[in-house]
Design goal:
With 422 residues, the chain is mainly alpha-helical. It contains 15 helices and two strands. A two-stranded antiparallel ribbon has the order 1-2. 57% of the residues are buried.
């Protein structure tokens, strides 16, 4: 049986951080990494479309961005469990800054063509892997702080989701306008933000460490640990399954939006960044409302309402008559998705055992992100004229999956008691 040890830092296992410490050691590092993550996630497909003018390569870039992320999740969870979140977050952000700087130089010296495109696609894959290592580290820190502090779990998780969504407001908008000045400007800014995130990562508090098993199970052992833990937590399992189906619709919207904006509505690629920033503002408002509402209602009620909003909005997206209507419906969809994310993270931070935290977090993220590369492949294969039908099909799957999930969880104690007990 693996032993549990802790990083050799001043903070103890149950030490609560003071209010100022939350901003310096939790929220600040999360903000730096989230901004770099957001710029990378939303800007890379736009960068590919700007340089190559190819919808198919844009979909391929989205798939390449998410497939390595998914492959890295189990390893990331094990590394966080055994080495600690601070060093993982620091090295991931520092590596991303180095990769982005190298790509910026390569794009300046290489002529347009196959070689430049190959370098660009390699950048997409590498930044995806490094971003996910940082994301797992920050998720582990958030979950551990919930257990150490006196604050309500849904309060801390709502702040963390709010930080992510604020970064999602700024990231696409900043990346879109920088792309108007040139790809080098966007990549340079991403590199600076990544360096800033690396410095802040060193401020994060200690996280539990799990000793490597003697039999050297490695990644397979982490998967087994995560599967056993997830199977023993029915509330978390149903939420992860329902949100995975919802993420298929979200991934299709994210990967298809640059193509839809340009091909269907005749807008510029920069307008896609503005659209996602507007959607993130709506999500941020929804998260703020969730934080207030959760002091009076339980997680199930908030999650069910968010699921209804996300499903109805997504079903309406393919019928949008204009880019403005499309933007509004995407914003409503993202607002519902934000509420669902608060519910999932709150349940996840409370019910997962500390010694299996990294492995289970990484497994749940793996399941939740599997739809994203699938969505990128769909966009690469489906003609632009038929993307609306694909979105409608995914919206139907999402609505059915979320309905089944919340009907099944109607009397689940974890969703009825978490907010009220803390």
């Amino acid at each position: 049986m693996a032993l549990t040890v802790y990083e050799d830092r001043p903070a103890g296992r149950h030490a609560a951080l003071p209010p100022g410490g939350l901003f310096r050691r939790i929220y600040g590092p999360r903000a730096g990494d989230a901004l770099a993550f957001s710029m990378s996630t939303y800007a890379m497909p736009l960068l590919v479309l700007t340089i190559t003018d190819s919808p198919s390569l844009t979909g391929l870039a989205f798939a390449l961005e998410w497939t390595p992320r998914i492959a890295a999740f189990v390893l990331a969870g094990n590394v966080v469990d055994r080495r600690g979140a601070a060093i993982v977050g620091f090295l991931a952000s520092l590596g991303r800054a180095a990769v982005v700087a190298g790509c910026a130089i390569a794009l300046m010296v290489l002529p347009r063509g196959t070689t430049q495109t190959s370098v660009l696609l390699a950048l997409v894959a590498l930044t995806g892997v490094l971003s996910q290592f940082g994301f797992v580290a920050n998720e582990a820190v958030g979950a551990v702080v919930v257990r150490r502090g006196d604050a309500r779990p849904h309060g801390i998780q709502a702040v963390l989701v709010g930080i992510d969504q604020t970064a999602t407001v700024l990231g696409p908008l900043l990346a879109g306008f920088l792309l108007l000045a040139g790809p080098g400007w966007m990549l340079g800014c991403l590199g600076v933000v990544s360096l800033f995130a690396a410095v802040l990562a060193l401020q994060t508090p200690p996280t539990p460490l799990r000793a490597a098993p003697r039999e050297g199970a490695g990644g397979a052992g982490g998967v087994r640990t995560g599967l056993r833990t997830l199977a023993s937590l029915p509330a978390l399992g149903w939420l992860v399954g329902g949100l995975a189906c919802s993420n298929l619709a979200l991934g299709l919207l994210q990967s298809a939006s640059p193509v839809i904006a340009v091909e269907t509505f005749g807008r510029s690629p920069a307008s896609v960044g503005t659209m996602w920033s507007a959607a993130a503002v709506a999500t941020l408002l929804a998260i703020t409302c969730c934080r207030l509402v959760l002091s009076r209602f339980d997680l199930w009620a908030v999650g069910a309402a968010s699921a209804i909003l996300a499903s109805v909005a997504c079903l309406g997206v393919p019928q949008a008559p204009s880019f403005l209507a499309y933007t509004i419906l995407v914003a409503l969809f993202m607002a519902g998705d934000g509420g669902l994310t608060v519910v999932l993270r709150t349940v996840r931070s409370v019910v997962i055992p500390s010694t299996a935290l990294g492995a289970t977090l990484s497994l749940t993220m793996l399941i939740l992100l599997l739809p994203f590369p699938a969505a990128g492949i769909l966009v690469a294969l489906i003609p632009a004229a038929h993307l609306g039908r694909a979105v409608l099909g995914c919206a139907v799957v999402q609505a059915v999956a979320l309905a089944v999930t919340f009907i099944r969880l109607r009397r689940e104690p974890a969703l009825r008691m978490v907010a009220g007990q803390t």
